[in-house]
Amino acid sequence: MDYAATGQEALSRVESAGDLDALESLRVEFLGKQGSISGLLKTLGKMSPDERKLEGPKIHGLREAVSEGLAARKQALEGAALEARLAGERIDLSLPAPEQPRGSVHPIAQVMDELAEIFADLGFAVETGPEIEDDWHNFTALNMPESHPARAMHDTFYFPDRDDQAREMLLRTHTSPVQIRTMLEQGAPLRVIAPGRVYRSDSDATHTPMFHQIEGLVIDKGIHLGHLKWTLETFLKAYFERDDIVLRLRPSYFPFTEPSVEVDVGYAFEGARRVVGGSGEGPGHAWMELLGSGMVNRRVLEAGGLGPDEWQGFAFGVGVDRLAMLKYGMNDLRAFFDGDVRWLSHFGFSALDVPTLSAGVGTPA
Ligand code: PHE
Questions:
Q1: Residues near 308 by beta carbon (within 8 Å), at least 6 away in sequence
Q2: Which pLDDT belongs to residue 365?
Q3: What is the pLDDT of residue 360?
Q4: Which fold has domain 107-347?
Q5: What distance in angstroms lies between residue 255's CA and the mean position of ligand 1's atoms?
Q6: In a designed cystine with 316, which of 1, 146, 188, 293 is the match (CB 3.0 to 4.6 A)?
């Protein structure tokens, strides 16, 4: 048999295979189980030893040549396919930019970035938790056992089904469950903020069913109310970019803090606009409730796996939307979520306006 001619023919067909599928059929035709070259190899068994000595190397050589040819062609075809894809995906960077840049950073996103920047400077890390929470993290671990009256005040959205541990599932009503998650995951000491969406069944000019909070949590040894007050003052001065921020701390109640402190900030009217700053006392001045805070309750530390005789901490929770409205002078919370392009282009921020402490944390576009 003329193996050279068989080889020539096979190789020239391999060479002209137009795509990977055609090449694969040729591989099967020659080298597959029923393939012609595989068939030739099988004939070796029936040959006499002398014949085999003569024919063996030729048939093996043929098989070798054809499989090398197949591999080479495969590489060439794959290379060509990649070239074609790259050419197809080419981006013409010389295209002109749109005349007017479109889109802007939403004030809430901007304020969250500002807050992350301010707290990063104080050594706080950013943590997040799920918006779909279970009853234990959102309430029980925060010292609100079932039937606790504070639960009723949260206007909670519940899901119809429980999770696999039979826990009731809900949309988190505050960012405080992230306190529990972070303590359980990281232990102590801790210095974190947790910004994010929260949900309550409530809607008017100052309440939307979804809004934003930022939680703060510090756990360490020897932490006291003075640390809380200093931290809030420092943060609010940086955020409002003025030094005359005056806070009023009022005793309050939250199940997860003891003692609990509600914090008011002094403001004055400039026309119809409330401008934060100064003491809330005197004509034209008033106090506005801004955030809830307190020393972390012992039972919350325990739920977070920490020993309350060893560790203390403070926590606070503040409405991000409220902070944005105060700083940037919006009066209707609902506009935040309307998606009205005119509102967004008026109140939005340039994507290039990244908040930094050195350049000022927020300047409207
Ligand atoms: N979670 C509280 C709320 O949503 C705020 C808060 C947080 C109060 C942390 C005290 C400590 O109203």
A1: 298, 301, 302
A2: 44
A3: 66
A4: BirA Bifunctional Protein; domain 2 (3.30.930)
A5: 9
A6: 293
